[in-house]
C-alpha cells in the first residue's frame, strides 16, 4: 500500500488530471485549434503544481491515440469530428492518466462515445483488490458488444508505477483467461476503446511524441543541454518538443531522434478506418472497491 504522503501525491495528480481532461474536452469545438487545447490542458497541469506525465494527446476519428500537435500545427476541429483528449499529470512520479471523448457539432456518434464510457463506468463499479484481471476485460467486451460496437483488442489498460506509465500488468478489453488478481496498493489505468471498425489498431504516421530510448553521449553541446533539460523536466516520461521551454526544441528533438537517443511513437489508427472512442480513469486499489483518482 502507499504511504499517506504517497497517496496524497497520487490523489492530487489524479484530481489535476481529471480537471485538465474536463477543461480540454470543454474547449473542443468547430474551428478551435488542436494546438490551443493541448497548450491549455498542459498549462493547467503545470499551473497546479504538477509535471506532465505525457503530452496532451488529441486524437481524432480513426486515430485512437498518440497524436499531439506540434508548435507549427494550425489544424482545427471540424464539424463531425470524434475527439479523444487523453492527459496526465504527475507529482514526484505519481501519475493520473485519464481520457474522454466528445463529438464536434453533430450527434452521429453519441452511442459509440457512450459505449466506451459505459464500459469504463461498469468496471468502476466492481474493480478493486482481489479482482481477477480477466473479469475487467470480460465486462468491457460485453458492455461494448451490447452497445453494438467492438472493443479495440490490441490497446490495453495498464498498471502504473512511480515514473513508469506502463508498468507490469496489462488490462485487455477482452477476457484473455488471465485470472490473476489485482493486489492492494496497485495503481491501474482502465481505458476501453470502442469502435465501429474491426477492433484493432495499427501504427500510422509519427504523432510528435517521443521518449528517451538510449541515454548515451551527445556530441552537439546544445543537443546535450537539451537532453539534460528533458531528463530534468520529464524524467522517464514521454514528451514532445511543443511542451519544452527550451530554444529550438524541435531541432534538438530531430537531432536526438536521428542519433537513436530518442524514439518516436506512431499514431495508432483503426485498421479499417473505423471511428474510435475512449474513456479512461486511473484507479487506486485501496481495498475491495478501488478509488477513482482522476475525478476532477
Ligand atoms: Mn491515457
Ligand atoms: Mn493509459
The low-confidence runs, each spanning 5 or more residues with pLDDT under 50, are none
The fourth-level CATH homologous superfamily of the largest domain is Creatinase/methionine aminopeptidase superfamily
Q: Give the tally of β-strands.
A: 14
Largest sheet: 5 strands, antiparallel
What is the topology, as strand order, of the major beta sheet? Answer: 7-6-8-13-14
Quaternary status? single chain
The computed structural class is: alpha+beta
- Count of separate structural domains: 2
Q: How far do the termini sit from each other?
A: 23 Å
Strand % is: 25-35%
Number of discrete helical segments:
6
Topology as H/E string?
Answer: HHEEEEHHEEEEEEHHEEEE
Q: Which fold name is given in CATH as the topology of the largest domain?
A: Creatine Amidinohydrolase
- What is the CATH architecture term of the largest domain? Alpha-Beta Complex
Q: Judging from the principal axes of the Cα atoms, what is the shape?
A: globular
The CATH top-level class label of the largest domain: Alpha Beta
Task: Describe the protein in words.
With 296 residues, the protein is an alpha+beta fold. The chain folds into two domains: 4-204 and 271-292, Alpha-Beta Complex (Creatine Amidinohydrolase), CATH 3.90.230.10; 209-265, Winged helix-like DNA-binding domain superfamily/Winged helix DNA-binding domain (Arc Repressor Mutant, subunit A), CATH 1.10.10.10. The chain is built from six helices and 14 strands. It has helices at 4-27, 34-47, 110-124, 133-146, 221-234, 249-258; strands at 51-60, 63-65, 82-91, 94-103, 150-151, 157-160, 170-171, 187-190, 193-195, 201-212, 262-270, 276-278, 281-284, 291-292. The strands form four sheets. A five-stranded antiparallel beta sheet has the order 7-6-8-13-14. The chain is globular and about 55 Å long. The structure holds manganese (II) ion (MN) (2 copies). One manganese (II) ion binds next to β4.
Amino acid at each position: 500500500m502507499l504511504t499517506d504522503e504517497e497517496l496524497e501525491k497520487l490523489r492530487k495528480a489524479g484530481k489535476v488530471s481529471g480537471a485538465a481532461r474536463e477543461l480540454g474536452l470543454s474547449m473542443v469545438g468547430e474551428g478551435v485549434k488542436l494546438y490551443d487545447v493541448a497548450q491549455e490542458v498542459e498549462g493547467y497541469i503545470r499551473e497546479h503544481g504538477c509535471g506532465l506525465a505525457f503530452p496532451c494527446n488529441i486524437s481524432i476519428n480513426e486515430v485512437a491515440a498518440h497524436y499531439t500537435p506540434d508548435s507549427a500545427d494550425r489544424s482545427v476541429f471540424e464539424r463531425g469530428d470524434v475527439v479523444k483528449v487523453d492527459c496526465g499529470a504527475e507529482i514526484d512520479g505519481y501519475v493520473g492518466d485519464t481520457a474522454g471523448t466528445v463529438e464536434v457539432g453533430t450527434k452521429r456518434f453519441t452511442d459509440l462515445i457512450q459505449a466506451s464510457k459505459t464500459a469504463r463506468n461498469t468496471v468502476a463499479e466492481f474493480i478493486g483488490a482481489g479482482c481477477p484481471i480477466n473479469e475487467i476485460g470480460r465486462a468491457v467486451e460485453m458492455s461494448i458488444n451490447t452497445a453494438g460496437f467492438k472493443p479495440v483488442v490490441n490497446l490495453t489498460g495498464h498498471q502504473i508505477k512511480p515514473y513508469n506509465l506502463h508498468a507490469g500488468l496489462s488490462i485487455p478489453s477482452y477476457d484473455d483467461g488471465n485470472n490473476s488478481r489485482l493486489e492492494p496498493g496497485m495503481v491501474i489505468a482502465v481505458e476501453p476503446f470502442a469502435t465501429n471498425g474491426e477492433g484493432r489498431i495499427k501504427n500510422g504516421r509519427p504523432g510528435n511524441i517521443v521518449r528517451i530510448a538510449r541515454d548515451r553521449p551527445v556530441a552537439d553541446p546544445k543537443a546535450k543541454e537539451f537532453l539534460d533539460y528533458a531528463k530534468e523536466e520529464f524524467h522517464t516520461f514521454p514528451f514532445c518538443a511543443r511542451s519544452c521551454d527550451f530554444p529550438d526544441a524541435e531541432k534538438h528533438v530531430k537531432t536526438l531522434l536521428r542519433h537513436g537517443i530518442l524514439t518516436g511513437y506512431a499514431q495508432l489508427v483503426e485498421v479499417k478506418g473505423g471511428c474510435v472512442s475512449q474513456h479512461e480513469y486511473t484507479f487506486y486499489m485501496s481495498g475491495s472497491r478501488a478509488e477513482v483518482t482522476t475525478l476532477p
